Each structure stands twice: as C-alpha cells, then as structure tokens.
Amino acid sequence: xxxxxxxxxxxxxxxxxxxxxxxxxxxxxxxxxxxxxxxxxxxxxxxxxxxxxxxxxxxxxxxxxxxxxxxxxxxxxxxxxxxxxxxxxxxxxxxxxxxxxxxxxxxxxxxxxxxxxxxxxxxxx
Amino acid sequence: xxxxxxxxxxxxxxxxxxxxxxxxxxxxxxxxxxxxxxxxxxxxxxxxxxxxxxxxxxxxxxxxxxxxxxxxxxxxxxxxxxxxxxxxxxxxxxxxxxxxxxxxxxxxxxxxxxxxxxxxxxxxxxxxxxxxxxxxxxxxxxxxxxxxxxxxxxxxxxxxxxxxxxxxxxxxxxxxxxxxxxxxxxxxxxxxxxxxxxxxxxxxxxxxxxxxxxxxxxxxxxxxxxxxxxxxxxxxxxxxxxxxxxxxxxxxxxxxxxxxxxxxxxxxxxxxxxxxxxxxxxxxxxxxxxxxxxxxxxxxxxxxxxxxxxxxxxxxxxxxxxxxxxxxxxxxxxxxxxxxxxxxxxxxxxxxxxxxxxxxxxxxxxxxxxxxxxxxxxxxxxxxxxxxxxxxxxxxxxxxxxxxxxxxxxxxxxxxxxxxxxxxxxxxxxxxxxxxxxxxxxxxxxxxxxxxxxxxxxxxxxxxxxxxxxxxxxxxxxxxxxxxxxxxxxxxxxxxxxxxxxxxxxxxxxxxxxxxxxxxxxxxxxxxxxxxxxxxxxxxxxxxxxxxxxxxxxxxxxxxxxxxxxxxxxxxxxxxxxxxxxxxxxxxxxxxxxxxxxxxxxxxxxxxxxxxxxxxxxxxxxxxxxxxxxxxxxxxxxxxxxxxxxxxxxxxxxxxxxxxxxxxxxxxxxxxxxxxxxxxxxxxxxxxxxxx
Lengths: 125, 692
Prior knowledge:
Chain A: It is found in: Endoplasmic reticulum membrane. The structure holds two protein chains of two kinds. Chain A is mainly alpha-helical. In chain A, 84% of the residues lie in helices and 0% in strands. The relative contact order of chain A is 0.10. Chain B is α+β, with helices and mostly antiparallel strands. Chain B has 18 helices and 25 strands. Chain B is flat and about 140 Å long. The A-B interface holds A 35, 38-39, 42-43, 45-46, 49-50, 53-54, 57, 60-62, 64, 101, 103-104, 106-107, 110, 114, 117-118, 121-122, 124 and B 588-591, 595-596, 599, 602-603, 605-607, 609-610, 613-614, 617-619, 641, 644-645, 648-649, 651-652, 657, 660, 664, 668, 671, 675-676, 679-680, 682-683, 686.
C-alpha cells in the first residue's frame, strides 16, 4: 500500500512538472512569433476583457437597456473577430493567404471596423 | 323679415324660400328703419370716409327725417369747398361735392359755382363715356339747384351722344369701346338724359324722347321675378370685379326711370303692377345691414313714393296671429311705401281658405270697415264663425276715386297667411287598465284636467292600458292638432313615446303590454304617464302628467337588448368630463450612479493594459514615412479615422442617421483616397526592402 501511495505521489509530481514543461515550451514558442502578430493578439485580449467586464456589469445591475448591453458586447466581440481575421491574413506562415499583401488586409480590417462601429453606435441608443 | 347682412343675394334667397306659400306680411318703412339709419351712418368727428358716403348718409337722414346734421355741416363743408375750388377735379369729384352741398347748403360763393359750371360745361363738350356725361350733367343740375344759372347750350347734341350708347334691348353701354351692355348703366343713362332735358334752354326733340320711352318699356321687359311676385332688375352678364347686386341695379333703374318720367310730358307705358312688384322687392329686404344697401333701398323707395308713373299702395297686417278667445279684430293698414296716408279706398276680404278643416265655410267678400282716427281697416272675425287654424286670406283694394287708378297701383289680389288661435277643450277623458279578454269599463277612470289629481294604475304584462278623449274647438267642432303624444317614463330615465290614433270623433290609444314587452326592455316598475297635445292654433297646448302606472313584467329572456344608455343631464354634457387616470409602466430600476461610474473606470482599464502591453512589446513608430507627401497622407489618414470616430460619437449624442451617413460618405471618400496612398506607399517600401 505504501508503494501505491509513492506511485501516486510520483505521478502527481510528474503531471505537475509536465504541465510546467508544457507551459514553458508554449511560452518559448510564442516568443518566436513576429511582433505584429503579438500586437494583434494583445488587441484581441483587450477586446475580450472589455466584453467580460460588461457582462459582469450586466450580471450585477440587470439587463435593462438591453440594446445598449448588446451594442457594447457585440462591438467588443466583433472587433475581436475582425482582429482574428486580420491575424490569419497577415500571418506569413499561412499558405492560404500568401498572395494577399498585409496592407490590403489591414485596409479591410479598418473598413470593417468602421462599418461595425457605425452599426453599434446606431444600436447603442 | 330678417335683416340682411352680407351678400344681398342670400337675403333674396331667404325671401324666396320663405314665400313658397302665401306672402309673409310686408311692412312699410317704419321707425325700425329710422333707428337703424342712426346706427349705420355714424360720422367720426362729423366726417364720413368719403364724400360719396357723406351723401348716402345725408340723403338717408333727409328722407327718413332723422339725424343731426350741424356737426356734419361744420366738418364737411371745408372738404366740399376745397373740392370745388381745386383746379384738377375730375367730373366725379365735382359731382360728389355738389350733391353733398345740395343737402348741406354750405356757404359757397357764386363765383366759385359759376367757375365750376363752366368747367362742367367744358367737360360735357369733351366727354365720351357714359359716366363722364352723367357726373357732369348731374353736377350741373345741382349747380342750377343752388341758384346759379346753368344752361346747356347743345342739349340736343348731348342727348344724342348719350342716346348713342344705348342698345336695342333697352340697356346701355358704359362707353363706345365696351361692347357689354348693363342694366345699371341704363339707369344712369336715363338719369343723365332727364338732367339734360331739364337743363336744356329749348325743347328737346320729342321724337327722341319717344324713342327713349320705348327703350324704357323694353328695359322693363327684362325684369326678373321671384315666386312671391316681387320684381327686380339684375345684370345679364355678371363681371366679377364690378358686381352690383340686384338691389343696386334695381335702385339705379328706379332712379333713372322716375327722374325721366318726372321731366317729360305724357305718360310712360309701364303697368303699375311692375312698379308695385319693385316696391315689394325693396320692402321685403327688411332693414339692410350694409350702409350702401340701406341707402339704395331708401333712396329708390323715395323715388317710388312720389313717382309720376304709379305710386304703389302697400297693404300690411300689423298682426298675423288672431285670437278667438280675446275676440281680436282683423286689422289691415294701407299706406304708401313710407307709411304716408293712402287716398280713400276700401279693402275687401275676397276669400279665406284653409288646407285643414274642410267643414267650416270659407268666408267670401267681406268688406273691411275703416277707422279714420287710426287709419286702419278692420273686421270682426267672431261673427264670421271661423274656427281656429291656419288661413290664407286674399285681399283686394278698391279706390273710391276712379281717377286715382292712374296715379296709384294697388297690386291686385294679395295673399297673406294668418293664424286663428283659440282655446281647445278636452272632452270626456278616460284612462284605465283592461284585461285581455275585453272591456272592463268598471276600471276606467274619468280624468279631470282642471284638477291636478294623479291616477294610480297597476297592470301586468297580460293587460292593456287605454286612454281616450275628444278635442273640441271653441265653435264645437272636432279638432285634430299637430301633436298628440303619450309618454311613459320609467323611473325618470328610459322614455317611450306613443302616438295616439284619431278616429272621426275621438283620440284613443290602447297599449298592449304583451306586444310592447320588447320595446320597453322588460323593465318592471313605476312608469310616469304624460300626455302632450300641441298645435300652433291651440292657445292651451299642454304637457300634463296624468299619473303613474306600476307595471309587473316577466324577467327578460337572454337575448333581449338593454335599454340605451341614458344621456346625462343636458347641461352637464358640456361640463368637464371625468378625469382619466393613466397607469404608466413603472420605470425600470436603475443602478446607483457610483456603481455605473466605477464600472466605466473598469472598462477603461483593459485599454490601459493594452497600451502598457504595447510598450512592453517595444512598439515604435519607425515605420512612419519620413518623406513629405507620404507622411502627409499618413497623417491625414489617421486624422480621417479619428474624425470618423468623432462623427460616431456625435451620432450617438445628437446627429440622426441621415446626417451621419452624409458626412460619413464624405469622410469615407477622403479615407479611401488617403488610405490607398499611405498603404500603397508602405507596400512599395516593404517590397523594396524585401527585394533588397
């Protein structure tokens, strides 16, 4: 029985260390990504965080002007989605969009964002 | 007749509508006119708005014999004098001033008047339109009336010139250029021709006068009439801007014809009936409300009063409702249009007729007696044994002196509507409740209307209520009034009205409650019984509460209709209504302001985190283009995006979608342009570095 216990302990330790190793390898791999992709990832994180804060607020006070809540949340989610699309198109390792110049992708991103925010502002009320 | 305000045509229409049956009584000019004149013509500090209106007022006052002219004299004479002395006066100016002066009698030197006379003579020589002739000739006539000699040297020529404007149908044109003829112009022309004849130094050619007399007869052929026998003149073509109503046109013709008849020898061939019809037209206007209409009416009636063709005699009834109870007399007045005495004559009641009661004899050929003191013809109607009702009386005037027939017009047979009223007796009134099987006369109760007893009846739905009575006139005949109703009122609210049937001798009604159940909504309870009898010829029309009846009715079945909602008291319907309390949706609970602002702060935190993250990543602006044109494009591009975001902010705060889209369109074009520039520059630099 003691051996069983020791095995368990060893397995737990190894799983923790496995998780740590995994985490470390992910971090180092991530550091290799180009800066512009990191900027876009940061932007996505920012947008999602803002959306989460709005949901928490709604959870506290109730959804009375529901249109305003939706406008706010969908603005954040929409811009996050557009940023993800931009990341896909700008990523040099992505073979599908090899021929698309990144400036063109950025122009699309700006245009779509402007349209999204026009609709959001109309819906804000 | 009702006074006439506004369009005279409306008054004439009212006349026509009211007189489809025999004539309402026309009255001669009376004190009502005199007091109305004082109210209509009111000078401001002795002055009227124009000399024309001054003349209207003064002439009306003169004819009716009312009004104080001293103040008008003081204020208006200077105006008149100025007008006469002014060198640039038009013919109309002289005409207005001179005719006002003829009534006021201002102190005007004979030199001024002679000067005016010579100016007028020159104007006549050079005149070519009808109005110029008219103003100058009548002006000269007034000058002559003031004592200054005014003789028209070429009277024949002037007569001929005026006559030349006449048409074959008796009308006149205003000048030789205008092809339209007008009846109003005919009146003016005739007055001018009369003036020419009186101003002429010799005889005017009689043949020409004969032709004009013939024209007048033709003019009278175009006279129009209403159903009640009134006659008037009106234009054939009505020009919008210069519309003169029938009154003004008729007045103009009357003045012209009367003036002409006064200066020529021999009679005009116009039947007296036509003058009578015109006088009737002028009198049925009543008291006009407009000063110009009032003047036209009074002025033309004054010409009719003293005209040389025939003077109408007006028969009027001071009262058209005669009572048998007070033994009234039928009174009739015969006067001229201004109420002056008529020559000796007799009034004959030719016929009375009624459409209603057939069995009373109509009266024929009764001569009215004359009361010299009050100037009234009267007749006692009680001995004639006429029953109450509505009658049409026909009168005829016969003059004592046969020579007067040439001077006066009596108007033939005249019809008037008269009401004879009296006391109607209710005979043998009986009310009671009957069983279905038949008469049970024991329960019939005799009513007595003189006493105020109320009957109390009780019935159920299987019984009937019966009411009967006879109506008797003062002469003992059966009377059929206009309204005979019985009203049952349930507890002061729901009312039912029933009409009584009349047989040859009596009125009766039998209310069968079984048949009426649905009509009275199956409502049991106390019903108040009211009897209403009324007629214009009844002096004692009444609405009596006979008593009440307690009805016991079965319960209403399912489908019976409810009684209609009773209207509330008549006057409270116009009062304030019940206040409506609106129930609004309770507003949603909002969070406290502090919480909201805290979370606003929390929302901005990720932005801060984003900026810090960017700095951590080592973001720089090295890629920003340095050469001027691309740099400018980039700056403008970023500025454009900032402006768009600002526009969105304003859109949220105040703009509407249309304005925003308009501005967004402009900004979008700008952004596309600058963005394309910037991004293509960046793309080209990046390919350059790649290839390099």
